[in-house]
Amino acid sequence: NRLLDSQIPLSDPPHHDEMLFIIQHQVTELWIKLVIHEISAAIQYLRKDELPQAVKNLARVRHIQSQLYNQWQVLDTLTPVEYSEFRHVFGKASGFQSAQYRILEFTLGNKNAATMAVYKQQPDWYARLELALNSPSLYEEYLLHLQRCGMAIPQHSVDRDFSDARGEDPAVIAVLKEIYENRVEYWSQYEMCEALMDMANNFQFWRFHHMKTVERIIGHKPGSGGSSGVSFLKRALEFEFFPDLIRVRTEIGE
After folding, report:
1. Cα within 13 Å of Cα(119), Cβ side
2. CATH number of domain containing 59
3. Nearest to 229 by CA among 11, 77, 83, 17
4. Residues 177, 181, 184, 185: what is their CA dihedral angle, to the nearest 10 degrees?
5. Is 93 inside any structural domain?
6. Mean pLDDT by 10-residue block, N- to C-terminus, for the chain (254 residues)?
7. What whole-number distance in Å separates Cα of residue 145 and Cα of residue 242?
8. Is 118:174 a contact under the CB 8 Å cutoff?
């Protein structure tokens, strides 16, 4: 009953469509919790060099992401007029204040310590965010696995301040090129590369639909929580989680 009693409209009298908005965000939080759970398991398997099991976890993440993407279609039924009738009750609240979402971004490699400031009054969440910020990302755990397997991952790429965002690394790209061009020999590593790309692409599809849903409902008004709204979401689309895996596609066959 606690779960079903958690949808409490703030509008008075309750606006019919506020329930849709509340459930959309609560369901998203539940799916993100499961994504973090699966990625955490994949990281543990990577640390034990059990690649097939890690790939299995990421396959489940891919299906969860499909659910996250498709549920935007439900929120797309909310019209601008309907939303404008209850938007004011949320004040400065924003989906981007989700600590789980930030942990997920950190775990996938989008590290930015400045985004943690809003959680300082929530010590439990702040501690979890700090741990995710300073730990190797999923991709970095994969690089550590490759290094243990004897592949030429340079030490500077895995012995670093993990709280810093990483860019392209030519030496890592060369290793990935070897994996792709010799995929039969490195089949498990090849599958992991593609699983990472599937997840990154699905995340971008989700972001894109988020942006289009916001544009459809509020146009180019400022977003909740003080963001610039659609323009902020468009900038987020420019970020790539695994730049080496993007760049290697240009190098393959060259």
Report:
1. 20
2. 1.20.58.480
3. 83
4. -60
5. yes
6. 93 95 96 98 98 98 97 96 93 78 96 92 95 97 98 94 93 98 97 98 95 93 76 89 96 89
7. 16
8. no
**Token pair recorded at residue 252:** 């393959």
Is residue 4 a part of any domain in this protein?
Answer: no
Amino acid at 82: E
Handedness of CA 163, 164, 168, 172 (dihedral sign): negative
The amino acid at 130: E
Q: What pTM did the predictor assign?
A: 0.93
54, 55, 53, 58: which is closest to 35 by C-alpha? Answer: 58
Taking the C-alpha atoms of residue 28 and residue 95, their distance in angstroms, rounded to an integer, is 10
Q: Using CA atoms, how far apart are residues 4 and 27, in angstroms rounded to an integer?
A: 12
Number of CB atoms found within 10 A of residue 160's CB: 12
Q: Is 80 left (phi over 0), alpha (psi -120 to 50) or beta?
A: alpha
Domains: count for the chain: 1
136: domain range? 18-251
Question: Per the domain annotation, does 38 fall within a domain?
Answer: yes
Are 32 and 100 within 8 A, CB to CB?
Answer: yes
Residue 12 lies in a domain: no
